[in-house]
């Protein structure tokens, strides 16, 4: 019975993927066209966040065209969707297909995305072989740039996968520091959602929590397709745990938040950037979501007065305020553009290898500050920001900028 | 919490979960009992039930957890929502049978079952594409009053689930055992050709089976929404698969078997979460299924009706 079901999943996935994963944007292009690929899950469960990221990237490309930064060249985005109807969210298989589309289009010199680490793991090897640089604004799984897994994700031996956010190797541990030092809790129960991102984040959190002397009361895994987490939450209650940490995305997160409010309403609860999304505030509502701590793997600049002009420009262009990952996406475009500019200024051919080398050695002023990369493609700044879900009834529930209150930078180890 | 309170609490959790699985399992069992067809579209009839209920509640002005009702308005809203949801899902089930399954009747092999898988995907994707993929906040107008036994608590809502499930299951059992149409259903289950010769309208019997099964799935969808306060297009698969397992475990085609199977799986899920680890729940449930099928191929209670030759 399970085989039949998975066979059906496969069949439906192929058919619907073909129906909904059609490329959009520039297809035909002349020789003076430079295409920047964008791969994001712009439909499905993560659509809201993905669209903000997409808009951040599109704004960067549009500004460069408007100010004619590259005389003789036209920049074009090629937006591909890696969400499928069967998955209901990002789908690594679709992401791999999209990566091949980027590689086979010779005008694509670099790309922005993906949003999710699961997709990134599928795309990185293909893009590495095709030598297409990709800058992710939000995929935080440490494996992608870990030299231990270089054979898998960096088969060409040269970094092609860059990030304008830090990784879960910092997001998890810094949050553990926040639990121990700022919240002052003595023990914690840790859950993950069995996804690549969630397990990695929870592992990193657990290691640092133990190092900080927090008593880890238990560790369990949630099935994101299940609906009932009351058994494990009742267990957490019975252990008199003072805090709960959840590594995972909003799919299981929404249900966990709701049931945790019913069963363990008073303990401290937190998670990573996977639940820093309006899906939590709209799916759970208040008071259920109130009080959860979440992190973002980037500095919080989305209401920084220094970038007020940019914020206005974004808001008026897209009728919606940007979040931090819209900013890291814009920063990613700035990194690609700076590399292009350098290549052209040095009189070299703007091709994939030259752009890649220029990105790897770049140091670019962006909205979040100076971005430069280590030898594996990771951004050198390692700031993790902490937010707390705090109801602001003046704003709609899906307004993440107002329902998530910035607390500060998590203590770094 | 003392270990007794804990056991009691997990028992209460498991019983509520099991009641829902049992309602869902009945739909598989009724249809299988009559047609020997495993109806996978049942998964998503349940899911659509939760969306129908959410729509009806929103017509009463309920959204999120903002409005609590008491007394007569509460009972009225719940009864109307339940009735509308059950009728709508029942009609959906009849429609699926009429459009997708009746043309295949008499075709040998697994064609009809594969068709139900197709219908299931169509339903879930239509809901995803029209309603969106994100998780919806399901309104719950029932005040959270709880009975405390030690540190364990039983909410008034859990009582409602048990009572409602008991009434629906009892009603179904009574209908099948006592009513004329129920007798026709049992006759068709035993031997459709002989039943036809005795003047039983087999089409009507099959439509009734689909209507009843799907209406119960709708009730389960409504209960699901109220209990968990959320719904999305994907809730059908896990719940449906467990309910299907419950039906097989109890003896597919056997109505009391489906109830017992559902309760058993709910309890295992809760106890596994407490004493072994939630991640092992599926391993235990499905290992038990294999074990039962190997030792007792007809399920725990077996088939009450003699099997067709």
UniProtKB/TrEMBL annotation, chain A:
Family matches, as InterPro entries: Leu-bd (IPR028081), Peripla_BP_I (IPR028082), TAT_signal (IPR006311)
Gene3D superfamilies: 3.40.50.2300
Claim: Signal is one of the keywords in the record: yes
Superkingdom per UniProt: Bacteria
Signal peptide location: 1-28
Transmembrane segments: none
Domain Leucine-binding protein: 33-390
Pfam families named in the record: Peripla_BP_6 (PF13458)
Keyword Signal found: yes
Keywords: Signal
CDD domains: PBP1_ABC_LIVBP-like
Database matches in SUPFAM superfamilies: Periplasmic binding protein-like I (SSF53822)
Similarity comment: family membership: Belongs to the leucine-binding protein family.
Protein name, entry field: Branched-chain amino acid ABC transporter substrate-binding protein
Organism: Acidisoma silvae
Automatic annotation (TrEMBL), chain B:
InterPro entries in the record: ABC_transp_permease (IPR001851), BCAA_transport_permease (IPR052157)
Recorded topology in the membrane: Multi-pass membrane protein
GO biological process terms on file: D-alanine transmembrane transport; L-alanine transport; L-isoleucine import across plasma membrane
Any Pfam family matching the protein: BPD_transp_2
Cellular component GO terms, alphabetical: plasma membrane
Membrane found in the keyword field: yes
GO MF assignments: L-isoleucine transmembrane transporter activity; L-leucine transmembrane transporter activity; L-phenylalanine transmembrane transporter activity; L-valine transmembrane transporter activity
Keyword DNA damage: no
Superkingdom, natural source: Bacteria
Keyword annotations: Amino-acid transport, Cell inner membrane, Cell membrane, Membrane, Transmembrane, Transmembrane helix, Transport
Subcellular location: Cell membrane
TM region(s), chain numbering: 12-35, 42-62, 74-100, 112-134, 154-176, 205-228, 248-268, 280-299
PANTHER family attached to this UniProt entry: BRANCHED-CHAIN AMINO ACID TRANSPORT SYSTEM PERMEASE PROTEIN LIVH (PTHR11795), HIGH-AFFINITY BRANCHED-CHAIN AMINO ACID TRANSPORT SYSTEM PERMEASE PROTEIN LIVH (PTHR11795:SF371)
Family: Belongs to the binding-protein-dependent transport system permease family. LivHM subfamily.
The name this protein goes by in its record: Branched-chain amino acid ABC transporter permease
Organism: Acidisoma silvae
Lineage, top ranks: Bacteria, Pseudomonadati, Pseudomonadota, Alphaproteobacteria, Acetobacterales
């Amino acid at each position: 019975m399970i085989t039949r079901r998975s066979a059906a999943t496969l069949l439906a996935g192929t058919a619907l993927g073909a129906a909904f994963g059609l490329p959009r944007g520039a297809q035909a292009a002349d020789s003076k066209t430079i295409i920047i690929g964008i791969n994001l899950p712009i439909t499905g469960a993560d659509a809201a966040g993905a669209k903000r990221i997409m808009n951040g990237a599109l704004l960067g490309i549009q500004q460069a065209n408007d100010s004619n930064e590259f005389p003789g060249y036209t920049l074009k985005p090629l937006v591909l969707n890696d969400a499928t109807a069967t998955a209901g969210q990002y789908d690594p298989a679709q992401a791999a297909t999209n990566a091949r589309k980027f590689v086979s289009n010779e005008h694509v010199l670099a790309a922005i995305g993906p949003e999710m680490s699961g997709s990134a793991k599928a795309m990185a090897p293909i893009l590495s072989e095709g030598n297409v640089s990709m800058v992710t604004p939000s995929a935080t799984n440490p494996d992608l740039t870990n030299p231990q897994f270089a054979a898998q994700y960096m088969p060409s031996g040269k970094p092609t996968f860059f990030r304008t956010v830090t990784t879960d190797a910092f997001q998890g541990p810094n949050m553990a520091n926040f639990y121990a030092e700022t919240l002052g809790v003595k023990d914690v129960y840790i859950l993950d959602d069995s996804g690549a991102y969630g397990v990695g984040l929870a592992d990193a959190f657990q290691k640092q929590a133990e190092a900080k002397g927090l008593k880890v009361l238990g560790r369990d895994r949630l099935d994101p397709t299940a609906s009932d987490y009351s058994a494990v939450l009742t267990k957490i209650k019975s252990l008199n745990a003072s805090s709960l940490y959840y590594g995972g995305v909003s799919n299981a997160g929404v249900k966990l938040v709701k049931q945790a409010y019913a069963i363990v309403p008073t303990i401290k609860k937190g998670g990573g950037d996977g639940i820093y999304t309006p899906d939590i505030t709209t799916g759970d509502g208040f008071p259920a979501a109130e009080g959860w701590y979440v992190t973002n793997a980037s500095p919080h600049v989305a209401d920084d007065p220094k970038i007020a002009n940019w914020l206005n420009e974004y808001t008026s262009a897209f009728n919606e305020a940007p979040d931090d990952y819209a900013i890291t996406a814009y920063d990613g475009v700035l990194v690609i553009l700076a590399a292009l500019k350098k290549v052209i200024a040095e009189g070299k051919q703007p091709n994939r290898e030259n752009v890649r080398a220029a990105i790897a050695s770049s140091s670019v002023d962006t909205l979040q500050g100076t971005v430069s990369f280590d030898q594996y493609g990771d951004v050198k700044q390692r700031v993790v920001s902490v937010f707390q879900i705090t109801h602001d009834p003046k704003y709609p529930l899906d307004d993440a900028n107002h329902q998530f209150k910035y607390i500060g930078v998590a203590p770094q180890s | 919490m003392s270990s007794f309170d804990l056991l009691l609490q997990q028992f209460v959790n498991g019983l509520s979960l099991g009641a829902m699985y049992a309602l869902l399992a009945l739909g598989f069992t009724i249809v299988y009992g009559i047609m020997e067809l495993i109806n996978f579209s049942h998964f998503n009839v349940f899911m659509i039930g939760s969306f129908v209920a959410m729509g009806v509640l929103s017509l009463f002005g309920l959204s999120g957890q903002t409005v609590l009702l008491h007394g007569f308005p509460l009972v009225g809203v719940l009864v109307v929502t339940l009735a509308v949801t059950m009728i709508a899902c029942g009609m959906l089930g009849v429609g699926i049978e009429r459009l997708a399954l009746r043309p295949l009747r008499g075709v040998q092999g697994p064609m009809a079952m594969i068709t139900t898988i197709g219908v299931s995907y169509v339903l879930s994707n239509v809901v995803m594409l029209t309603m969106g993929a994100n998780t919806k906040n399901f309104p719950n107008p029932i005040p959270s009053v709880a009975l405390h036994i030690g540190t364990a608590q039983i909410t008034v809502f859990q009582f409602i689930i048990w009572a409602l499930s008991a009434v629906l299951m009892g009603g179904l059992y009574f209908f099948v055992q006592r009513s004329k149409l129920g007798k026709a259903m049992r006759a068709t289950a035993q031997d459709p050709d002989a039943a036809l010769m005795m003047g039983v309208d087999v089409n009507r019997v099959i439509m009734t089976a689909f209507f009843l099964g799907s209406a119960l799935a709708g009730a389960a969808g409504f209960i699901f929404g109220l209990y968990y306060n959320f719904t999305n297009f994907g809730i059908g698969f896990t719940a449906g698969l467990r309910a299907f397992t419950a039906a097989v475990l109890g003896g597919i085609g056997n109505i009391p078997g489906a109830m017992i199977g559902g309760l058993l799986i709910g309890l295992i899920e809760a106890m596994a979460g407490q004493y072994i680890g939630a991640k092992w729940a599926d391993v235990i449930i499905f290992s038990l299924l294999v074990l039962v099928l190997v030792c007792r191929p007809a399920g725990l209670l077996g088939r009450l009706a003699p099997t067709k030759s």
